[in-house]
Design a protein that fits this description.
Strand content: 5-15%
Number of helices: 7
Structural class: alpha+beta
Number of strands: 8
CATH architecture of the domain at 2-186: Roll
Distance between the termini: 122 Å
Largest sheet: 4 strands, antiparallel
Oligomer: single chain
Order of helices and strands: EHHHEEHEHEEEEHH
Shape: elongated
CATH topology of the domain at 2-186: C8orf32 fold
Helix content: 55-70%
Strand order of the largest sheet: 7-6-5-8
């Protein structure tokens, strides 16, 4: 979804937060998102471990990417999760996309979440209408103890908050988001959904493997063509460089003279190797001529 963004426009920021919540709690995406979340946190024992596992997965599989200028682009969390699992270039988004993914994953597991807006200290807005420039989510790991999950900023580690003079906390449930009660178990439909996803991933992997081979061949061909183009470029450059051309000609003449010298030496060595044969042949011919002369004189 796209939302027009104007600086210090509070209504546009509110629309962004509402869109993040709507996409994170999309009813038809709850089950497949929960299947992703359960697989990610498998083996964890505490909410804090689960939050760290979700944070790490999103940080490693979904890259940061700026939105177009003056446009806010909020993506569907399930879309980013699917492409993140396959590690495609489409698994990328800015802070609101990361917040939507983290909100969808943790909420599907029954954890209480809250949205956090942070004011940029470098471009503060008016005191009565601050410019909220960054968004992330926090998870309640214990009563009244919240863990920041800001995976969009690479310089932040798990549990760290972005700097800002003011923060605004929003309860997603107040915006219509429904967090599941309790931590759900992995049901039959979850396993079935994940199995279909794994089969799809394998099929895509096989197809992409063949495509990668073809791409490799074309890349090698392109590299060869690039080398030829570079050689032609250097040749034309040498032609335009008179001094360089003269130096190249002198080196070429020297190489030719050296080649001629080696050819002459090769001929001499061959003659030297044939000399014993010449002497032996001449002596044999002389003996044969002398024998004929004695016989028919």
């Amino acid at each position: 979804m796209h939302i027009a963004i104007l600086k210090n426009d509070a209504s546009a920021i509110d629309a962004t937060v509402k869109t993040v919540t709507e996409l994170a709690f999309k009813p038809e995406d709850t089950r497949p998102v929960r299947a992703f979340a359960l697989m990610i946190i498998a083996g964890t024992k505490t909410p804090d471990e689960a939050a760290q596992r979700l944070f790490t997965w999103v940080r490693q599989h979904i890259k940061y990417q700026f939105d177009p200028r003056n446009r806010e682009f909020v993506q569907r969390p399930l879309f980013l999760l699917q492409h993140g699992a396959r590690r495609t270039h489409l698994a990328a988004g800015d802070c609101d996309d990361h917040a939507a993914v983290q909100l969808a994953l943790a909420s599907s597991l029954g954890y209480k979440m809250r949205i956090v807006l942070t004011e940029n200290p470098e471009t503060p807005g008016p005191s009565d209408d601050p410019w909220w420039e960054h968004i992330h989510v926090e998870m309640e790991v214990e009563p009244n103890r919240w863990r920041p999950m800001d995976s969009s900023l690479e310089f932040l580690q798990f549990g760290e908050r972005a700097t800002g003079s003011r923060r605004k906390y929003i309860d997603p449930e107040a915006l219509g988001g429904h967090i599941l009660d309790g931590r759900p178990s992995l049901g039959f439909m979850d396993i079935f959904t994940k199995g279909v996803g794994m089969i799809t991933d394998i099929t895509v992997g096989i197809i992409s493997g063949e495509a990668t081979k073809k791409a490799g061949k074309w890349a090698a061909h392109a590299s060869a063509m690039s080398s030829q183009a570079e050689a032609h470029y250097l040749e034309e450059q040498a032609r335009l460089n008179f001094e360089g051309s003269q130096l190249a000609l002198e080196r070429l003449d020297a190489a030719r003279r050296e080649a001629e010298t080696f050819a002459a030496l090769e001929k001499q060595s061959r003659r030297g190797a044939m000399m014993p044969l010449y002497v032996a042949g001449s002596a044999a011919l002389a003996v044969f001529a002398y024998t004929l002369w004695r016989k028919y004189r």
